[in-house]
Specification:
The structure holds 2 protein chains of 2 kinds. Helix content of chain A is 32%, strand content 21%. By secondary structure, chain A is of the alpha+beta class. In chain A, the strands form 6 sheets. In chain A, strands 11, 12, 13, 16, 17, 18 and 19 form a 7-stranded mixed β-sheet that branches. A 4-stranded mixed β-sheet of chain A has the order 1-10-9-8, with helices on one face. Chain A starts with a helix and ends in a 10-residue tail after the last strand. Chain B is built from 12 helices and no strands. In chain B, helix 6 packs across helix 9 and helix 7 runs antiparallel to helix 9. The radius of gyration of chain B is 22 Å and the shape is elongated. The chains are: A alpha+beta, B mainly alpha.
Chain lengths: 548, 268
Amino acid sequence: MRRAFAVLAFSFVIHWPTVLRAETAGQSGSQLHFCLRGEPKTFNPLLVEDDASETIRYLTGGVLIRLNRQTQALEPGLALSWKVSQDGRRIAFRLRSGLRFSDGTPFSAEDVAYTMKALMDPQLHSPTGDSFRSGEGQVDVQVPSAESVVVTFPAPVAGLERLFDQVAILSAHSPKKEMAVLGPFYVADYSPGSSVLLRRNPNYWKKDKEGKPLPYLDSVRLDIQRNRDIELLRFRRGEIHLINTLDSEYFERLQKETPGAVHDAGTGLDSEFMWFNQVPAAPLPEFKKNWFRTTEFRQAVSMAINRADLCRIVFGGHAQPAFGPVSPANQFWFNSSLPVPKYDSAGALRLLARAGFRLDDGILRDSSGNRVEFTVITNAGNKSREQMVTMIQQDLSQIGIKMNLVTLDFPSLIERITRTYDYEACLLGLVNTDLDPNGQMNVWLSSAENHQWNPKQANPATSWEAELDRLMRAQASAVTDKKRKSDFDKVQQIVAEQQPFIYLVNKNAMSAVSPAVVGSSPSVLDPHTFWNAELLRLGADPALGAQK
Amino acid sequence: MNPLQKLAAIILCLIFALMVFATILVPAPYARQFRDVPNAAPSTAHPLGTDALGRDSLSRLLYGTRVSLLLAPAAALLSTVIGALLGTAAGFLGGWFERLVLAVTDLSLALPWLFLLLTVRALLPLDVPPMVSVLIAFLMMGLLGWQTSVRVICTAARGIRDSDFLLLARSSGCKPARLLLRHVAPNLRPLFYAQFWISIPLFILTEANLSILGLGVMEPMPSWGNLLRGFEDFSALAANPWRLVPLILLVVVVMCFQLVLPSQEVTQ
């Protein structure tokens, strides 16, 4: 018996790679396979807050208007057309007819009305609904016919139609509630902690150019995997087809092995920046607060940082020097007239001299003789941020500034920057998914919590912050995009001049897609790799990923 | 001393000399970035190549040797002394004291020390000089790393307590203090050494992990620990094998210490 077992075990070891390959290939078929980096918190599309739930909402939810992730233009979804009123309070949709939810329930204007009422219900606390709340009062939803809906808000909502990209329509009548969907896939199975299986929605309304029903894929399997190293390993083994976001280090690693599988879509929306603590109540020496409040000091520090080197060395060329709060990837809202940040140590010293600083034996001192030295905090474990700080240390030493680095675990860092304000400068990054400036209201308003250099101000501390408040409110209430753009351009101009945040780099949007996936066209907007999931299919080679 | 021990002693002397004269020997300051040549291969200008930021790897290795070779043994010594005192006393005395020491040891093994370390870092002022931060990190390691030593030494001491020669000494009228100092401790000395040598690489690696958490040697100061962090990317190591030098040096130093010092114990 023991011998038989040993033979069996030996035979399994010999044939194990074959068994594994066969199993992998068998699983693939027309099943797309990739990883979620966390447990989905909800399947209710109105309550989505986390990335994993957002992925599922994107793949399963049917929306009235869809933002094309490549062109950044709005395209008809469940709505054939729409019209926003002059005052920006009302939007009227004309809907497609004859559509059905994944469970066969017919789709009508009643479902849109039901969804909008649920979305705006204060009891539900929908994060998606919060974007629509522009004023006090009830949202009125009228259903003039089965194919038209008019939604009226109590106050103008800036960029109203764009917000509908996030609103997945629910069925008013289906017994399956939010599990009945209008998107290309529906949730067929969920194993907590393990995976989510999405199957092809047989009632999906879209067809390809030849009239074939979409999506092409039979199913999508989403494995819950928090560890990025394991995700990368699985991609290299060919067990998964996509990695939606890659950092430059992993990108370089993969590029060496499978150059055809990695994609750099160009400058993304994410940025890295640093700022000085300007909170009046911060437990810092008064002379340091004075430095940090001096515009020339901030401008000089910004000018002394060699951003091109940061992009080239820390990000391996997969980043661009940052201009301001909006990445050039945000085609409409980016202010292209902003000055390109230039690296100029001599210019920085001139600025500092104008503000009363002087260079003594290579050491910068303020007008009272204090040595200019400060500590930058950043989150521990983030290699690229540590490297950026180390490089900035050398850049600033050229103008006599001594900069120290302290890395902290994230909760401690958040505690310092949001509660105790016991820090001098901080370097962090911003993952930006919202193209619209309204998504940045909580940063630029002086009363906002994320107005990080000096948050929660009762009254704006400076005249330029008061101007930022005025412009942000003006753009939020403006009806035309032209007026909004003009106001927000001025916001970007002020931020570039005052440097409350010293923007360093905009990281590129990098991803990995197996050569077995046909139809993929990675974009700079999230979801980079599967934004056109209904058009993706697996090629003739089902052995997936890494090509040796 | 046999030839192998002599060789080990010579290597150690050489490494210590390199450490002491690092300031003179290094091709460039350890923090200086040669940004035109990041990740460069060994050359005459940079005998061990450069790191990801273009810093000279040899300079960083020599300065890192200073930090690690002074502080890791100091932390190892501290933890071994604590382990030796508690373990020997517990094993020799036995009874309620042994149970108490072992219970405290078990309890402290079960405590989430990582959170304590994170709390310490969070409580430290941000303007603490980097060297003080490093000293605190190693002190914490020394104070918190004694549990395994206590268990091992206690078990050995218990064996000696029940041995015939100790029974003989006791029956000859030896006082407990003399028993402990003249009979028990000398027999445990090889174990103390072993615990000490085992602890050194452990503390060096612990320091590397603490650096990741923000409580070790901070950039740009080098240490063997943060030089070993470069090993995360195994494919890069295969392509640039000279990056293994810090690891090789660590292994060589620990081996040399183990070869040289126990022999002194025997000769004593």
